[in-house]
């Protein structure tokens, strides 16, 4: 590398050439290097997702034109040809992919055959519904799941531990659609403690669109009644999904904390006579936070990718419902759009988790 | 260490208890808020649960059940039907006459209808709407195939068909032939050919003269309608209609829980369990015929292509068992034309349960234990149960059937490929006339799906002339006779076994009046009133 005439890093500010000292290699901050590397990998993964979603979607042996056209229209070659052109199916696959990729750069995901709307618009409507639910669920399942996992670990092999482990198994083992129907039946139909399906009461009009999340948008619009109504509609689907995700988090947290509790540095902290709160928060929780964080990230990613059955029972028209309808109606553009969005969500959730891991544990970013 | 742990767990326990209590309190408060929410206004609102089948709201492109239902309530057509009756045409935007040769329909505008902006519906609007339907090459464009639409004067429009078209007046009530306001559509990209770009506009804005108009439209979630202030007909009772996209499994709970006023997709099983003191169950005959089809080409149908095998299957099936499974209001049609249409066949001795006769016919067919593959859509509410009955009935006479459930898209693809052996399918009427069932003729669309048009020429030659005669028949009685003869021949030699017609079931609060189930558009909200 050629030396510059002015290198601010040379002590005294003298030009490096004049001092004759070799210029130290430019070193990026380890954290920045770590972020850059992770971001680069994420971008490559996103491209990979476009390839996979396109190829897999187009491997389906069924003709998507048949899924769109009625019997009479399907018998009219003129209509079939026009639709094939409209859907871009008259081009070779490689050209279709190129067109798909170039459109994506302009955030154009094509037009859905089932809604006749741009897929990007459909996703922009469906994703906030799922995101709102996922955030709510993540909050509750993390707080409760990690809390119960910690309690079980700290009460290892006691009745409390065993009870929590058995209960956590219920959440994992019971079919989510069954829990959803049961909870809906009991709390809406029998007890009238919760509102019915949907994101708002039918008589109410959604708040002006800001984020697409009704709880936030209603607050932004200064409509507290609407906020409470939206929040009340969140409760039952959130409880169902929390029950479903909490089991995994409890067991994972318990395992991670048990692993850390046995480490020498925890024993040493206790031996030093540190207060128990400090030992738990600074030593045990911090030590166990990486696997818990990773698990929470994966949970969040899976929640964002849609909970089809829960959304179906509660008429929660989020990403899961949209993906399901796209799949059964062979709506190729929508399937690719959902696949890409879910891929991106997972990639960037992992990216965020990696960053947090790097921040929490310096060893990670050095590696 | 033991002491430390005990202290730690005690502390954590309190923390966790506090957090859990906070979480539970939030949930309870939020839940309670539901009962305190104040529904928007004093407006009368009718809430309807429907499982959406909807792709486009543009009448020239909409072909699914939900779009058809909404468009019927938002737009007017030249002619319409009242209530459940699909046999009597009622003037709406226009009255009509048809020429003796069944080729010229003349529409005379009543002059009463006005669009929601207050302007009158004109002959130009009618011509534009029809020509646009033909030109955009959408799913329903075939409805006006071979028809030339011409404005005669400000009050008169002529529809001239290339061939005999006695069914044309019965096509005109289809919501695909809704009358749109030409100026609004053109201003928003509307044209008369496939370059038309008004679909997006028409998905958010209604430009019709029906009793309601769009309030908000979210095609995957909910559609709300409000009264059209300029509607020329009788003012509807409800100010606002909210149609929510709700899965069929949840609709009964919503209805009985008080969230919904009307449910459109409750299954017949559940409908029979609804308390009729609180809810009215309205059943109407659907215009869908479910039938078993068998491929007539030896190469694809194998033994199923044999006429005697088809006849054996006709007598092997226990039709009453199928009706029991399909449930409330279901019927067995004698032929492919639904029972409520003129020209339908009430019953046919070919389609009767007679296992002994079935075994004799099977022996004549040369069946030697081959597996017969039966395709069906796993998304269809009836298909799995019905095909299992067919499978069991076939097994009773010694025929082995292997069921092949597929998604609706795959089922359609395989069916239309014309190379699958056999399957369960249904045909829903595009318009209430027996002519819509000529697709079952050897040269019709369904004939192509069963490879009939390039399969067994002998039976095709016997039936195609009867189909042509039915298409050309004129006069109510002659047409009915011709379609009956066509269906009897289908039952004698054809590859279709008509199984059942399910019912259209609409369940509503018992306090509601004016609910009528319609096989074409499900329900007319403008006739529904509260107590």
From TrEMBL, chain A:
Subcellular location: Cell membrane
Pfam families for this protein: BPD_transp_1, BPD_transp_1_N
Compositional bias ranges of the Low complexity kind: 11-21
Region (Disordered): 1-25
Membrane topology note: Multi-pass membrane protein
Record domain ABC transmembrane type-1: where: 127-357
Keywords, ordered alphabetically: Cell membrane, Membrane, Transmembrane, Transmembrane helix, Transport
Similarity comment: Belongs to the binding-protein-dependent transport system permease family.
Descriptive protein name: ABC transporter permease
Organism: Cryobacterium melibiosiphilum
Organism taxonomic ancestry: Bacteria, Bacillati, Actinomycetota, Actinomycetes, Micrococcales
TrEMBL record, chain B:
Cross-referenced InterPro entries: Peptide/Ni-bd (IPR030678), SBP_5 (IPR039424), SBP_5_dom (IPR000914)
Compartments where located: Cell envelope
GO cellular component: ATP-binding cassette (ABC) transporter complex; cell envelope; periplasmic space
GO terms, molecular function: peptide transmembrane transporter activity
Top-level taxon in the UniProt lineage: Bacteria
Entry-linked SUPFAM superfamilies: Periplasmic binding protein-like II (SSF53850)
CDD domains: PBP2_NikA_DppA_OppA_like_7
A Gene Ontology biological process term: peptide transport
Pfam families documented for this protein: SBP_bac_5 (PF00496)
UniProt keyword annotations, A-Z: Signal, Transport
Ranges of residues in domain Solute-binding protein family: 89-438
Record flagged with keyword Signal: yes
Annotated PANTHER family: PERIPLASMIC BINDING COMPONENT OF ABC TRANSPORTER, PERIPLASMIC OLIGOPEPTIDE-BINDING PROTEIN-RELATED
Record-stated family: Belongs to the bacterial solute-binding protein 5 family.
Name assigned to this protein: ABC transporter substrate-binding protein
């Amino acid at each position: 590398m050629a030396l510059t005439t002015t290198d601010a890093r040379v002590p005294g500010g003298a030009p490096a050439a004049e001092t004759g000292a070799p210029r130290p290699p430019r070193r990026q901050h380890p954290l920045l290097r770590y972020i850059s590397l992770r971001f680069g990998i994420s971008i490559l993964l996103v491209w990979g997702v476009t390839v996979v979603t396109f190829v897999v979607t187009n491997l389906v042996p069924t003709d998507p034109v048949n899924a769109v056209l009625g019997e009479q229209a399907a018998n009219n070659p003129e209509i079939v040809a026009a639709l094939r052109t409209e859907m871009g199916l008259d081009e070779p696959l490689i050209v279709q992919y190129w067109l798909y990729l170039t459109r994506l750069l302009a955030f154009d995901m094509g037009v859905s055959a089932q809604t006749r709307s741009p897929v990007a618009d459909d996703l922009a409507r469906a994703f906030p519904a799922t995101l709102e639910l996922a955030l709510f669920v993540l909050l509750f399942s993390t707080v409760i799941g990690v809390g119960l996992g910690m309690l079980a670990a700290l009460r290892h092999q006691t009745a409390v531990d065993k009870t929590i482990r058995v209960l956590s198994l219920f959440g994992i083992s019971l079919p989510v659609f069954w829990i959803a129907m049961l909870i809906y039946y009991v709390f809406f139909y029998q007890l009238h403690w919760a509102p019915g399906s949907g994101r708002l009461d039918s008589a109410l009009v959604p708040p002006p669109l800001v984020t697409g999340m009704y709880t936030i948008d209603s607050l932004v619009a200064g409509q507290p009644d609407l906020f409470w109504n939206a929040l009340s509609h969140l409760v039952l689907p959130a409880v169902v999904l929390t029950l479903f995700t909490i089991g995994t988090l409890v067991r994972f947290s318990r395992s991670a904390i048990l692993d850390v509790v046995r480490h020498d540095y925890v024993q040493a902290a206790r031996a030093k006579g540190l207060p128990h709160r400090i030992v738990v928060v600074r030593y045990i929780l911090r030590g166990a936070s990486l696997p818990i964080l990773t698990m929470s990230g994966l949970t969040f990613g899976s929640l964002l990718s849609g909970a089809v059955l829960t959304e179906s029972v509660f008429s929660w028209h989020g990403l899961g419902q949209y993906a399901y309808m796209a799949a059964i109606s062979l709506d190729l553009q929508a399937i690719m759009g959902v696949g890409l969005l879910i891929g991106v969500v997972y990639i960037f959730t992992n990216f965020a988790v990696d960053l947090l891991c790097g921040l929490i544990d310096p060893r990670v970013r050095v590696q | 260490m033991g002491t430390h742990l005990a202290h730690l767990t005690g502390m954590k326990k309190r923390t966790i208890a506090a957090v859990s209590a906070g979480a539970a309190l939030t949930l309870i408060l939020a839940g309670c808020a539901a009962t305190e929410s104040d529904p928007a206004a004093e407006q009368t609102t009718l809430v309807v649960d429907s499982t959406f089948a909807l792709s486009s709201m543009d009448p020239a492109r909409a072909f699914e059940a939900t779009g058809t239902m909404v468009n019927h309530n938002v737009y007017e057509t030249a002619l319409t039907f009242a209530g459940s009756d699909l046999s009597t045409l009622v003037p709406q935007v226009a009255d009509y006459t048809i020429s003796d040769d069944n080729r010229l329909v003349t529409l005379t505008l009543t002059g009463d209808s006005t669009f929601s902006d207050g302007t009158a519906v004109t002959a130009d609007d009618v011509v534009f709407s029809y020509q646009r339907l033909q030109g955009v090459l959408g799913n329903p464009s075939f409805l006006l195939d071979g028809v030339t639409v011409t404005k005669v004067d400000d009050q008169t429009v002529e529809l001239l068909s290339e061939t005999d078209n006695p069914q044309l007046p019965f096509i005109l009530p289809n919501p695909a032939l809704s009358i749109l306001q030409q100026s609004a559509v053109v201003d928003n990209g509307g044209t008369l050919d496939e370059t038309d770009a008004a679909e997006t506009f028409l998905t958010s804005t209604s430009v019709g003269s029906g009793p309601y108009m769009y309030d908000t439209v979210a095609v995957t979630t909910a559609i709300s309608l409000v009264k059209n202030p300029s509607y020329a007909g009788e003012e509807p009772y409800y100010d606002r209609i909210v149609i929510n996209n709700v899965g069929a499994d949840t609709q009964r709970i919503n209805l009985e829980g008080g969230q919904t006023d009307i449910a459109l997709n409750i299954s017949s099983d559940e409908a029979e369990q609804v308390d009729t003191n609180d809810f009215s169950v309205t059943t109407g005959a659907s215009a869908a015929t479910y039938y078993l089809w068998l491929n007539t080409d030896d190469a694809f149908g194998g033994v199923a292509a044999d006429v005697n095998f088809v006849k054996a299957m006709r007598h092997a099936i226990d039709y009453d068992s199928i009706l029991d499974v399909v449930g409330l209001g279901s019927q067995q049609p004698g032929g492919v034309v639904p029972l409520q249409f003129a020209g339908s066949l009430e019953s046919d001795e070919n389609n009767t349960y007679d296992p002994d006769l079935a075994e004799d016919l099977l022996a004549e067919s040369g069946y030697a234990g081959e597996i017969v593959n039966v395709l069906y859509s796993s998304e269809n509410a009836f298909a799995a149960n019905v095909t299992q009955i067919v499978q069991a009935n076939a097994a009773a006479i010694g025929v082995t059937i292997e069921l092949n459930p597929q998604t609706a898209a795959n089922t359609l693809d395989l069916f239309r490929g014309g190379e699958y052996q056999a399957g369960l399918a249904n045909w829903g009427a595009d318009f209430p006339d027996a002519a819509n069932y000529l697709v079952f003729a050897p040269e019709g669309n369904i004939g192509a799906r069963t490879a009939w048009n390039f399969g067994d020429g002998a039976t095709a030659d016997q039936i195609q002339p009867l189909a042509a005669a039915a298409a050309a028949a004129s006069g109510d009685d002659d047409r009915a006779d011709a379609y009956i003869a066509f269906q009897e021949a289908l039952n004698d030699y054809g590859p279709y076994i008509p199984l059942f017609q399910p019912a259209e079931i609409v369940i509503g609060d018992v306090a509601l009046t004016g609910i009528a189930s319609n096989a074409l558009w499900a329900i007319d909200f403008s006739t529904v009133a509260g107590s």
